[in-house]
Design brief:
Elements lengths: L1 H31 L15 H23 L3
């Protein structure tokens, strides 16, 4: 049971990390005002702080993805 649980949680954690990475990339695009028109709506557009927040989120989620898939157990 423990092995199956670890595999399931690793998959779940990886999917969450990938979704957070995509969200961070969307924030970067909105903050820098680049990308498709459906992203260029709202208060985050052309605000450099959201590009910074997105970069931090993407970096942390990629670090979490790396940690999830390289840890033992």
């Amino acid at each position: 049971m423990g092995g199956a649980f670890n595999i399931a949680m690793r998959i779940y954690s990886s999917l969450i990390s990938l979704l957070l990475t995509l969200m961070g990339l969307a924030w970067i695009c909105q903050g820098l005002h680049v990308g498709p028109s459906f992203l260029m709506r709202g208060f985050m557009v052309s605000d450099w702080r959201w590009a910074l927040y997105g970069a931090i989120l993407a970096a942390l989620s990629l670090a979490h993805l790396y940690w999830t898939n390289t840890r033992k157990g």
